[in-house]
Amino acid sequence: MERRQIARKVPAVTVHFWAVKILSTAMGEATSDYLVHTINPYAAVGLGALGLGIALTWQFLLRRYIAPAYWFAVCMVAVFGTMVADAAHIELGISYVVSTAGCAVALTVVFVLWYATERTLSIHSVNTRRREVFYWAAVLATFAMGTAAGDMSAYTLRLGWLASGLMFTAIFAIPLLARRVFGLNEVVAFWFAYIITRPLGASYADWLGVPQALGGLDLGRGTVAIALTIVIVAWVAYLSMSKVDVERASERQAEAGPSYTLHGEPPG
Predict the structure, then answer these.
(1) What is the tens place of the pLDDT at every residue in 11-69?
(2) DSSP string spanning 191-215?
(3) Which entry of 118, 120, 132, 235 is 20 to 30 Å from 8 by CA?
(4) Cα dihedral sign for 93, 26, 123, 266?
(5) How many helical (H) and strand (E) elements, i.e. helices and strands, does the chain have?
(6) Which among 189, 227, 193 is positioned nearest to 21, based on CA atoms?
(7) What is the rounded distance in angstroms from the CA atom of residue 267 to the CA atom of residue 259?
(8) What pLDDT does 124 receive?
(9) Closest CA to 135 of 149, 151, 148, 118
(10) Pick from 3, 23, 68: nearest CA to 236
(11) 180: helix, coil or strand?
(12) What pTM was computed for the model?
């Protein structure tokens, strides 16, 4: 695959990034559950795959970062990644522990191949087509792994959705604190936090949407999916107009190196 540099098509890692990322994971969980419980599950998975294909095609065809395209791709990864993890358990009978471990292995393989090939895993080094492919492969693997981990927490460990959400919220704070206090590598901190956003958002989405018999508030999966979609669309529209998530020229340094903190700020 060619190594010609392209413009980075990822956003700056700010509070906006983490907020929309968590919202997208919650929306993906609610949307996936609503579709597979409302229409034929195989048709739902087919729609999810089609949506993912369209979203990634749009993202790959672009020459620069466009907020609606990027976040549409993330949202479709959230929907389809949830379906893949759920199908492994429901259709194939694979336990959440095994599926979590399997997805973790898959993610590790992606990271190993990515680093062995490019010598960096930084989101801010995604400036060639090959790195872009590795990036989206890692994103898809994190969503599938996070889905399985969230279900394992709620069902296998019997923590329930709210307790799981609170637990993953606490875990999400670990890389930020470790980065600030102990100087944890910024790339490690980023991917640690990125993986945890999946079960974090999904746990709260399930808590809001599932029936009370399952430990939820019974607001309805469809209602939760629509509400979260509206919030995401509004937030991304703001990002698209304000450009606050577009990296400034002064931040565009060390293309191939991990030179950014967890919050996307250039090192002092």
Answers:
(1) 999 999 999 999 999 999 999 989 988 888 888 889 999 999 999 999 999 989 999 99
(2) HHHHHHHHHHHHHHHHHHHS-GGGT
(3) 235
(4) negative
(5) 8, 0
(6) 193
(7) 7
(8) 85
(9) 118
(10) 68
(11) helix
(12) 0.88
Q: Output the six-digit token pair for 267.
A: 């090192």
Please report the pLDDT score of residue 89 as a whole number. 67
Instruction: Output the six-digit token pair for 90.
Output: 């429901």
Token couple for 168: 């993953």
Q: Of 199, 234, 245, 194, give the one whose Cα is nearest residue 70.
A: 245
Q: What does the pLDDT read at residue 250? A: 43
Spatial contact of 148 and 85, defined as CB atoms under 8 Å apart: yes
DSSP state of 267: P
| 117 Cβ contact list (under 8 Å, min separation 6) | 130, 134
Cβ atoms of 77 and 52 within 8 Å: the answer is yes
Token pair recorded at residue 115: 């680093």
Sign of CA dihedral 87, 93, 99, 103: negative
Residue 146's alpha-carbon distances to 12, 20, 41, 235, in angstroms, are: 23, 16, 21, 23
Residue 186 binned pLDDT confidence (cut-offs 50, 70, 90): very high
Q: What is the pLDDT of residues 131-177, one digit of tens each?
A: 999 999 999 988 888 888 888 898 888 899 999 999 999 999 999 89
CA 33 – CA 36 distance, rounded (Å):
5
